Amino acid sequence: MMKNKPDEEDYWNSSKFKAFTFDDEDDEFSRLKESKQAVNSIRSLVEEEDDEDEVEKVSWSGEPVGSISWSVRETAASNQKTQREHAFPKINASSPSVSRSHSGYSLSSLFKGKTKPGNFQPFTDSLSESSVKLYAPELRKPKSESKDYISDWSPEETIHRMQQGKVVSLERFRSLQDKLLLLDFSVRAHDGNIITAVLIHLKRTLSKEVLFRELESRQTALRHFIHYLTEIRDHRLLLELLRALGRTEDAALLQYKEHLNIEDESKRRDFLKSCLNLPFSPEESAHVQDHYTLLERQIIIEATDRLAEHAGKVEIFQKFPRRASILNMPLITTLYYCCFYHYNEPEGTYSSPLNIRHTFRISEKQYFVTVLAARAKLKAWSDLDALFTSRNWLGFTKKKSPLSFHRVVDILQKNSAPTQVLQEYVGLVDDADLRIGLAQKHKCHDIVINTYRDLKDRQLLLGYRGKVERGSAEERKINDLLDSPHIRWKN
Amino acid sequence: MAHSGRRDSPELPDFSLLKRLARDQLIYLLEQLPGKKDLFIEADLMSPLDRIANVSTLKQHEVDKLYKVEYKPIISTSDQVCFLIRPRIQTVKWICDVANADKAAGKFRRYKIIFTPQKFYACEAVLEEQGLFGDVTTDEWAFYLLPLDDDIISLELPEFFRDNFLAGDQRWVRTVGSALHLLHSIYGPFSKIYGIGRCAKMAYESWKEQVEEGDTKARQAEIGNAFLIDRDVDYITPLCSQVVYEGLVDDIFRIKCGCVEFGHDVTSSDKSVKVMLNSQDKVFSEIRNEHFSNVFSFLSQKARNLQTAYDKRRGMDIKQMKTFVSEELKGLKQEHRLLSLHIGACESIMKKKTKQDFQELLKTEHSLLEGFEIRECISFIEEHINRQVSMIESLRLLCLLSITENGLLPKDFRALKAQYLQSYGVDHLLTFANLRQLGLLVEQQPGETLTVMESKVGKLVNDKTAGKLTDAFSSLAKKSHFRALSRKLNLVPKSDEEYDLRVPRDMAYIFSGAYIPLSCKLIEQVLERDSWTGLEEVTKLLNGHEFAFTGSNGADLRAKSDAQRIILVMFLGGCTFSEISALRFLGRERGYKFIVVTTAITNSSRLIEALLGNKV
């Protein structure tokens, strides 16, 4: 839709989209603000007339007093109280229970067909008769109570009865053929509940080898079995199954997943080390290796930094106390942390950002983004200057970035960089329109003024004069330019 | 919205009956347990339960105290405890721990588990293994369907998606069949039933079997046709950012069981408010289906009207004032409250969206849908990952890229995956494995790029030219199914035409005019043709599993009743509010009324979160 309009401003302002933008400068938004003001102006009026209980009633609250969620919270609160006071004799902290009403509103009596006389209107009145027939028998006899006489049902009939929730015995099916018939009929019935029930029976009565062998050719049953083993957390059997099926990569991943259950970081590290020998694909293997190396380093960095912080001798830890431990954080978070606390360390140390960059093959762009964010947070603008500066063979310096400069500006602005800093990077944005837009947004007046001057656009400059502060240096500069006899304005 | 569509849309059936049925059955189950009892409720059942019953209902049936299931030792002093839970092995294991701890302490209690909507053998097997079968009794509460609104019914089973599509576990198929059976028995018989997807087909068969088991009488139908659709038929739609008001509110604040909690940034006070979002909210019902850009003008108009209504008080005499207070004031106050909430919500949405460069994000999504400037999209996603912007968003964009492009080039796939793991943690290896299994995020296989045509051409010319041709083709050959589907069904409207979001002309308006949701387009096409005929190529691209059956009930189906224009659409694996808005639009245009039944309401975050692998 924007083939002809590559510019995003154009795209959003194209007639197709009716100039709707998610920009706070937008007209619609200001209209929203107006309507808010309008509503707010009435608010005082409404509130003075509000009576409290009215508000409660009107509230479509999901948890009005008397709702279940509300009551559960109340019980929890009262229990906390009783727990705290449990040295005292126990007092029943529960709310007074409403005694059972004897009004005959009982459904059991209804379903037994002897509705007591009274003003009770049975709910079935509004139901057509057939639906009563349909549901009443279901209610009359909870399935757990129905005990049917077990006779010689075939595997197919057995599956059918199981689906209806009737009690059956699977013990009778002792030959492999019968067991597999049960399984195949359950799969044919598309009822996962029954498939799993049969599988539980097969697991109990068949050796692993036979069961695995038969499951291999039955994909639906196999997936149910894998899911069942996952749910009961029988990882050992699941691993055996996956290996027997030759699904070594799945088995490796499953084993790797175990690390999530290990709280202690040293144990976790050792476990990850043991994962390095698992049959991962070469690509995955590299990732797991990285995971291990990263945790190993995090443990070292964490120990050192915790000491340094406690000793209170390193300034940066005093100025910006660490909010959380670096253990088990992603690589980029770790890099950010090291850019924040260990930026100027020589590459030889584990916590040096450069060392991390090389060890984990971090891309140039990723590295820049992270350094930028961390140093901007510390307002270390000179570091940024150095980061972006490169020198060519003649010794001239030039600002370069693997990230477009308008992104750089965006990140800086989010870290509340001062205007002078922003100005420098806004000036580096190549695209003139984008540059002007950013300069206006971030009030980099010099850039706007100089660009208009270069465009020899008197009208725009005149217009911009209205936007700068009265009596400011910018206003004087604009006036000087407008009065200048050396510029040949184009309008 | 100014509706240009037909005005004679039929009345919707009354679904509050479903709530009453569920409540009455729960009461019956509680009465089976005479005497005082404490009730433990599973956390995700509390909101659904709140919609159909309240504390006094439970108290009337001798429920003493209510607790949330928290997988901790319990502190109840009651000698009778009842657990109201979903049939999950972990919950049953916890109950076994509780009962066995009591046994060890020599405490005697009666235990009852009420599974809803049904029990599973695997859960009972746990009771048996723990030596508690019989000590702990079980029952089923057939609470299948919760009406969330006049036209939305939810099974409230978010786990359906992961169980069915990722794990390949069909445990919920019969549940869905039973839910359909319930609707069919009360509001049917359906005259026609269409569907697409493996699970839809199985659910249909399960339903049919249940129909054949029971005896059904002819009845005046309230629902005409039904359409079942699997979520995996269309992953694109739920992965897109929502820009229709209700969808946007869900994306940002998360609507839970028809209720949203607005924080203090919305209420501009120190407390948060829970608000029911449904057709009873007069302000909400007018803006829920609107593109976000229209919501402002609507709200400001409303605000002005409200002010005028209040201003009427000026110059009133006592008597007039009295009538004003008794007749109008309450309504005005209510409206005022709702209006200021929605204005607050809009403001908060704007703030959040401006901060996260929503505009660029949407631009990227639209480019992906159109298959245009893919390189730019990839670098946008890459930067998103580099800057550690939301872990879920990054995955969502990667998935969109993969599905629209029919997989990523191996070089791109490796680079993006490596950077993703660096930014969000290596343990997401497990997430990538899940996404690959589902086909949501895959690498293009070298063989796939060879098309039939290409190999034919290759045979006709000598080897050297064939090599060149292959090169030329390999760029062309990456036509994914989505691209083909999009062309066949015109999912991406022509870009050179103007799209006025105020007067939408098709369902694309829910995505700013950039894309018509595939799921809804399929429904539209099948209803229009009254069959799948003519859509063979489309269904082939969607891996088949489509079906259409005519009801075999004795009722007079030819009756030109309104019910024939009431269409039940069942989403297996979840549907989004945007899809519901699109169907409402389609309904207005064609004189239908859609009833959306879904296993749960979903959106991109819920979908992706269900597939994360780095959880214990």
Automatic annotation (TrEMBL), chain B:
The keyword Coiled coil is annotated on this UniProt entry: no
Pfam families per the UniProt record, alphabetical: Sec1 (PF00995)
Record flagged with keyword Protein transport: yes
InterPro entries xrefs: Sec-1-like_dom1 (IPR043154), Sec-1-like_dom3a (IPR043127), Sec1-like (IPR001619), Sec1-like_dom2 (IPR027482), Sec1-like_sf (IPR036045), VPS33_dom3b (IPR043155)
Origin: domain of life: Eukaryota
Gene3D superfamilies with a match to the protein in the record: 1.25.40.850, 3.40.50.1910, 3.40.50.2060, Syntaxin Binding Protein 1, Chain A, domain 2 (3.90.830.10)
Subcellular location: Late endosome membrane; Lysosome membrane
GO cellular-component term (any): lysosomal membrane
PANTHER family membership: VESICLE PROTEIN SORTING-ASSOCIATED
Stated name of the protein: VPS33B late endosome and lysosome associated
